[in-house]
Amino acid sequence: MSPVLESTARALLRRVAVEQAESRIPSLAVAVVRDGRLAWFGSRGQVEGAAPTETTQYRIGSITKSMVATVVMRLRDEGRVDLLDPIAKHIPGIPVGEVTVAQLLSHTSGLSAESPGPWWERTPGMPVEELIGRLGPETARHRPGRRYHYSNLGFGLLGELVARHRDMNWAQAVQQEILRPLGMDDTTPRPRAPHATGYAVHPWADVLLPEPEHDAVAMAPAGQLWSTPADLARWAAFVAGDTGGVLDPATVAEMREPATVDDGDAWTGGYGLGLQLTRAGGRRLAGHTGSMPGFLATVWADPSDRVGVLFMANSTSGMSRGLLTDLLAILDEHEPRLPAEWEPAGADAGLLELTGPWYWGPSAYALRLLPQGDVCLNPVVGTGRASRFAAQDDGTWLGLDGYYAGEILRVVRRADGSLSHLDLNTFVFTRTPYDPAAEVPGGVDPGGWRG
C-alpha cells in the first residue's frame, strides 16, 4: 500500500464516520486508489461483530455491468462483434433485434428499464429463454438512439451475447477473462465468507430488515457480482488505465468517452460504453454506481491523475451522493499532486520545422510537439478547435480528439521540398494569414490586405 499522510487519513476517516453515522449505514467500507495501488482504506460499522476489512465481500450491483461490457469490448477487439451490429445478429429471433450493441452498452437502446415479470432484483431469476420469450413490442420504450434511458434488461441481453460467443455463461467469461488476470479472485457471482448481510434500515426507527439474495439468472449480468474493497480498488485502477493486458488502454479510453448524457448541455452525468461518467470538482470521473436490495456501492476513477475512490455499504438506501467526491476533495486539499518534472525530449529536424504559428485564414494557431511524439494544433487565443494528432506510417497525421478526431492532417511541400501549408480535411493552414503563395481554397484577393 502507498499510504496517505496521517493528517489526510484522519480527514478521510472523519468524512466516512460522519457518513455512516448520519446516514445510518450498518457497515461502510471505503478505499482510495493512487497510481494503481490501494492508498487508504477505512471502515465503520460492523459485519458479523467485527469491522469490515479489505477482504469483506459486499454485493456491487450494477458495477457488474462494466465487467460484462469489458468482455463485449474484448469481443469487438477480436473482430467477433461490431458495435454497430444489431443484437439479432448475435441472438437470432429476438423481438427487439434492431437495437445495436453500442446502444445496449450506452443505455441508448430505448428498451425498458426492467425485465418483464416481477421485480427481478427481489425475486428468483428466470432462464434466458423465458426472458426472451416474454419480450415484445412493448419492450421498446423509445426510438433506438433517441435518448439515454437506463436499461437493466439491455445488459441481460449483453450477457447472453457473451455466453453465445464464449460457449460458457457470462460469469465464467468475466471470471476467466477479466477477474482472474486482474487478480480479483474475491469477486464472485454469489457470496462467500466473510460477507456483509444486506439490510433495509427503517426510515423512522433504528432497526434493520434483512433483504433477500438470489441468483438473478438471465438478469444476473445487470447486477449479480459480489466483491471486496481490495478487488474493487484493482478495478478502479483498471478504469483509470492500468488494464493489466485485459484490454488495450485505448479501448478503455473509448469506453470512457461520453456516448450520451442525462442532464442536458452542461452535463454532470452521462454514460460511455458500459461505464458511467460524472463531472465533479473539475474532474471527469468514470466508473459505476451499484444498487441492489440491501447493498450500495460506487467506484469512480480519474485517469488524468490515476486516482480512484470507492465505497461499499450494506443498506438498501440512505447514502449521500457526495461521499466519494468529498474524499477526492480532501485528497486534493491535503496532498495535491505534484506535476511531473519537465525534461527535454528529442525531436528530429523535420518535426521541429512544423512547429510554431499557422493560420487558418486570419485565425492564429500554434503547432507544438508533445513528449510522446504526437503534435497538437491549438488556437493561440481560446480553446476553439484544438486537437492532438498522431503520426501515421504514410506520413500523415491522425486526429485523436476534439473537432478533428479521426480526420487526416497532411503536410504539403513545394517542389523544392520547402513547407507550403497544412491540409486538414480541406482546411488549409498557412504560415501567414491567407498566404497568397499557398493553395488557399477560393484563392486570395490579388490586392492583398488593405487599410
TrEMBL record:
<dbReference type="InterPro" id="IPR056008">
    <property type="entry name" value="DUF7586"/>
</dbReference>
<feature type="domain" description="DUF7586">
    <location>
        <begin position="348"/>
        <end position="431"/>
    </location>
</feature>
<feature type="domain" description="Beta-lactamase-related">
    <location>
        <begin position="19"/>
        <end position="323"/>
    </location>
</feature>
<dbReference type="Pfam" id="PF24491">
    <property type="entry name" value="DUF7586"/>
</dbReference>
<dbReference type="Pfam" id="PF00144">
    <property type="entry name" value="Beta-lactamase"/>
</dbReference>
<dbReference type="InterPro" id="IPR012338">
    <property type="entry name" value="Beta-lactam/transpept-like"/>
</dbReference>
<protein>
    <submittedName>
        <fullName>CubicO group peptidase, beta-lactamase class C family</fullName>
    </submittedName>
</protein>
<dbReference type="InterPro" id="IPR050491">
    <property type="entry name" value="AmpC-like"/>
</dbReference>
<dbReference type="InterPro" id="IPR001466">
    <property type="entry name" value="Beta-lactam-related"/>
</dbReference>
